[in-house]
Amino acid sequence: MKTKNLSLKIVIALILGIAIGSIFNIFAGSAFVENVDKYLFNVIGQIFLNLIFMLVVPVVFVSIVLGVVGVGDPKLLGGIGLKTITFFLTTTAIAITIGLTLAMLLQPGAGKSELLNSDDVSSYQQTLNKENSAQDSAAKQTFDQTLINLFPKNPLQAMTEENMLQIITFAIFIGVGIIMVGSKAQMVHKILEQTNEVLMYIVTMIMNVFAPIGTFGLVAHAFTGAGFGAIQQLGMYFFIVLLALVIHFFVVYGSAVKLLGRTSPLKFYKEFIPAITLGFSASSSTATLPVSLECTKKMGVRREIASFVQPLGATINMDGTAIMQGVATIFIAQISGVTLSFAQIITVVVIAVVASIGTAGVPGVGLIMLAMVLNAVGLDPAAIGIILGIDRLLDMTRTSVNITGDAACALIISRAEERKLAAKNE
Ligand code: ASP
C-alpha cells in the first residue's frame, strides 16, 4: 500500500461521495436517484465492505496468535494487557468528560421540549417494546453473562458469529499453547506466519484496487440516505458531538502520541489516513481492523503488540461512542426538563464507559447501548428516536475516533517496550 497516493485517492473519493450523496439527497424520491443509489453506490460500497469483512476473522485470529507467540512470555503479555486496559479506560473516561462538559455548557436541548412529542419517540418506543429485540438483549447483558461469554464453548461458532472477544480468548490460548509446546509446534507456528503474509497481501491488494471506489460508494450511499437536511433541527446536538470528537481526536490522542509515544502526531495521523477514512465510510471498527493493523505496521509499531492491542480495542475501546452517549444523555435530560445531580453525572460516566465497552464494533450499536445509560439515570430510552435520524453521520465520525484510539494505544505501548528493551541492552 503506497500510503501517500492511496490516502489522497481515498480522501478525494470521500469528498466526492459526500458531495454527490448530498446532492442526491435533495432529489430523494426520484426514480433516477433511487436506482443509482441502490444499484450503483450501494453495490460497490457493499462489495468493498464484504471484501474487507471477509478478512476480519482470519486476520484477528492469526495476528493475535502470532502476537502472543511474539511476546513469548505469558507474564509479559499480562503486563501489556494491563497497560492496554488502563489506557482504554482512562481515554474513554476523558472522552465522556469532554462530551458531558461541552453539552452542559452549550445546552443543546434547551427550549426543545417539543421534540419529545414527535413520532420518532413513539416509534422507537415500539422498537423497544418488541420482545427479545436486539436492543433489549444488547442493553441488558448482565455483568456475569458478559464474563461467562468471554470464553467460547465452540470456537468455530465464535468465528461464524464474529464474536470478537471469544475469538481473542481462543487465539490467546492457542498462542500460549504454541509457546509452551515449543519446537514440537514449530510447523503450526510457521503455517500461521505464512498465512499472515498471505492475508496481509490480500488486504493491501483490496485497498489498492478497491478502496477509493468502495469508499465513494459507501459514503455516497450514506449521504444520499441521510443528507444534511435532518441535521438542522438537531444542529446544536450534532455540532457538540462533532466538536467533542474533534477535540478528543486531535488534543487527547495528539498529546498522548507526542508525550507518551514520543512520536510526531502529524506522522501518526498521516500514516493512519487509510484506516480513518475506512472507519468513516464503513462505520465499523471491526471491519476496519485488517487495514488499521496494516497502517500501524507501516508506522513501525511492533507486530506482537499491535496485533493484540488493536483487535481488543476495536471490540472494547470506543471513545467516540462514549462521547456521543455523554452528549446525548445531557441533551435528552435537557429536553425532558431534568437537571441531573452530580451523583447522576458520575453514574453517566461510569455506565457510559461500561456501555462503550459492551458496544460491538459495527454500525449503530452505540445508539442501542445508549438505552443502558439513560435507564441508569431514569431518563426515557424512547427519546433515542429523536437522534436516530442523524446518527449515521455521527456514527461514521465516531468510528474513525474509536479506531484511532486503538492505534494510538498500540503505538504508545510499542514505543515504551522498545525503550525498555533498549535500556536493557545498554
Ligand atoms: N460504529 C461504531 C464502531 O464500530 C460503534 C457505535 O458507536 O455504534 O466503532
Molecular structure report:
The chain crosses the membrane at residues 12-33, 39-72, 84-106, 164-186, 198-223, 235-260, 340-361, 367-390. GO terms for molecular function: symporter activity. It comes from Staphylococcus pseudoxylosus. Helix 9 (186-226) crosses helix 11 and helix 14 crosses helix 16 (365-376). The chain has 18 helices and no strands. It starts with a helix and ends with a helix. The chain is mainly α and 426 residues long. Residues 283-285, 318, 321, 359, 361-366, 395, 398-399, 402 line the site of aspartic acid (ASP).
State the helix count: 18
How many individual β-strands? Answer: 0
Mean pLDDT: 88
Largest sheet descriptor: none
Transmembrane segments: 12-33, 39-72, 84-106, 164-186, 198-223, 235-260, 340-361, 367-390
Keywords: Cell membrane, Membrane, Symport, Transmembrane, Transmembrane helix, Transport
Organism: Staphylococcus pseudoxylosus
Subcellular location: Cell membrane
